[in-house]
Specification:
mainly beta, six-stranded antiparallel sheet, 2 helices, 10% helix
Length: 137
Amino acid sequence: MGPGLFTRDTIRNVLLFQDGGGDIKLEANTELRAKFNKFIEGAVFVDAGNVWSYSDVDTFGPEAKFSGDFLKQIAIGAGVGIRLDLSYFLIRLDIATPLRKPYKTDGSEWVVDKMAFGSSDWRKQNLVFNIGVGYPF
């Protein structure tokens, strides 16, 4: 996401190798975990945030600049995951989808009512699989 109100498609058209870069990052995460056994935990989580540029940058334009209305540009996503706790490190396997996109999609930033898990096109555009080491916060 980001910077600012830009979409990934906009950024790829502007600069091929830059995706979501910025000087200012705001993020929040909350996670509820349930232990299944000694090594495996389940998780349900919600993430929020975005990135912005500190000043107008020719690459991204004025919509990428951090401004007073930055709260309107916060993206929100939610998902589920599995945690493999090997005591000396943790492996996360997550799948998530956006709940609110900072740019308008068909008149609204909220996309909860547009979820269509049965549609392969929707899944391809909205489901994100992530593998990570360590906790996200």
